[in-house]
Specification:
The protein is globular and about 60 Å long. The relative contact order is 0.19. The chain is an all-alpha fold. Helix content is about 70%, strand content about 0%. The longest helix is centred in the N-terminal third of the chain and has 36 residues.
């Protein structure tokens, strides 16, 4: 590996303005730190947050769940700050995760990092489409929605809107949004809508869970399943812990931030892990308190309340998911636009048509996988194991070692190596557990299951 990265630019970093890479079709260095903060907060408070009561708290219980979430937050903040501080090396900003890894290790690691990141983002986006489909199905179950029925009867005449069809509709809506928003920086006002939608379904889920919890009798908080299933579930929940906080695309988000990029990104990260994390804790802990070990993997399936309130919550969840998916698909969009797109305004007809065909094809594959295997919790576990652990913890600590090696004391070097080895082992265990859970669910539910 090409590891000659302990480079002399460190001593002049404060004296020179580093040059940003210009080989991208998307905008860079244009956004204030708080816009990046809202992008990050949109990620952690997306509709995935409605699943953490069931996917994290149920397998881990009160002590394991609470301590695990807080510890994972602290470790994730630390690891992300390490990556943020490596944004400017070699005299240039590294606007992609794979650019940073390739500069430090060489071409082979460039390709491997891109593969890991692609898997991470593909799985996250698949999960978003599953979530959007679940919200759509629940809306249809709660309230007879004429336009959904009209679409559905074109395919079936049994009068029931099933999850695979809801997932197909959700994928189509996500594609329409992707056609109109050319790059991450263009989200701007949509981030405000995303925050509003998040608050709507989180507040409603919180309020209805509180009401149900106050009315219900004693709940069962025991960790379910047999011994070995319990072990696999616990390891899978640990993967979900890191999945909850991390994007796997920090350099791509940091690339949009104005100079000084490192200082501004650290502000955004502190915002994400303080104010931004409060809604996640509120709905996760209260949801588990209200329903115990019977908590659904999608909290809005568990709550009881007025029809119109539940419909509003699911509409908000659906719309927020459409926006959040665009964030996690943006590295793939940037790659495709830069490599195969044409110049000019992103709103010119030829660029719009390019997005329709290319992004439409990408999201079609996402949607097909989501409909085939709609096991949301398992996807979260597998994503955490295969991508989030390596990208956020293993690679972050090792890259920091490679770049800062001469400046680190022996105890700090030992600390980073401990993180590299420990998280590598944890990633392997989590991947085994996730595959086991998917195997079990695949036997329980058939392909295109209506769950």
């Amino acid at each position: 590996m090409e590891t000659a990265v302990v480079i002399g630019e460190d001593k002049r970093r404060n004296d020179e303005k580093l040059i940003a890479l210009d080989d991208t079709a998307h905008q860079i260095s244009t956004d204030p730190w708080y816009q990046a903060g809202f992008v990050l907060t949109t990620g952690i408070n997306s509709s995935y947050v409605l699943g953490y009561s069931g996917s994290i708290m149920v397998p881990l219980g009160w002590i394991g769940g609470v301590v695990g979430l807080l510890l994972a937050a602290a470790m994730s903040l630390y690891a992300n700050i390490l990556v943020a501080r490596l944004h400017e090396v070699g005299g240039r900003r590294k606007i992609r995760y794979r650019d940073l890894a390739g500069y430090i290790y060489g071409k082979k690691m460039y390709r491997l990092t891109w593969a890991l990141q692609y898997v991470n983002l593909f799985m996250i986006n698949t999960g978003y489409i599953i979530l959007a489909g679940q919200a759509l199905k629940l809306m249809a179950c709660i309230l007879s929605l004429t336009f959904l029925k009209a679409i559905y009867v074109l395919f079936r005449d049994d009068g029931a809107l099933k999850l695979p069809y809801c997932i197909a509709i959700a994928g189509f809506v996500c594609a329409l949004f992707a056609f109109g928003i050319p790059h991450l920086s263009a989200l701007r006002v949509w981030l405000g809508f995303s925050t509003l939608f998040s608050l709507v379904y989180i507040v409603i889920a919180f309020a209805l869970s509180l009401k149900d919890g106050l009315k219900s009798e004693a709940r069962d908080y025991s960790i379910p399943t047999s011994h070995w299933d319990k072990v696999f579930s616990i390891v899978g929940a640990v993967a979900n812990l890191v999945f909850a906080y991390n994007t796997g695309m920090l350099p791509e988000i940091q690339a949009t931030v104005k100079e000084p990029a490192i200082k501004n990104m650290e502000k955004a990260l502190w915002f994400q892990f303080t104010v931004g994390g409060l809604p996640l804790y509120a709905v996760t802990f209260l949801g588990y308190w209200a329903y115990g070990s019977s908590t659904s993997s999608y909290l809005l399936n568990s709550v009881q309340g007025p029809v119109w309130v539940k419909v509003v919550a699911n509409v908000a969840s659906f719309l927020q998911t459409v926006i959040a998916l665009h964030i996690f698909a943006s590295p793939m969009y940037e790659y495709l636009d830069t490599k195969h797109g044409r110049g000019g305004s992103p709103y010119e007809l030829h660029n719009v048509l390019f997005r329709i065909f290319v992004r439409g094809g990408y999201l079609t594959v996402n949607t097909l996988v989501a409909a085939l295997l709609p096991f949301l919790g398992d996807f979260m576990s597998l994503t955490g194991a295969l991508s989030t652990f390596p990208l956020t913890f293993v690679l972050a600590n090792h890259m920091y070692l490679m770049v800062k090696n001469r400046k680190l004391s022996m105890p700090r070097k030992a600390w980073h190596w401990l993180n590299v080895v420990g998280f590598s082992l944890l990633a392997i265990l989590a991947a085994i557990a996730a595959m086991k859970l998917i195997s079990v669910d695949s036997k329980t539910y058939h392909l295109f299951a209506d769950i």
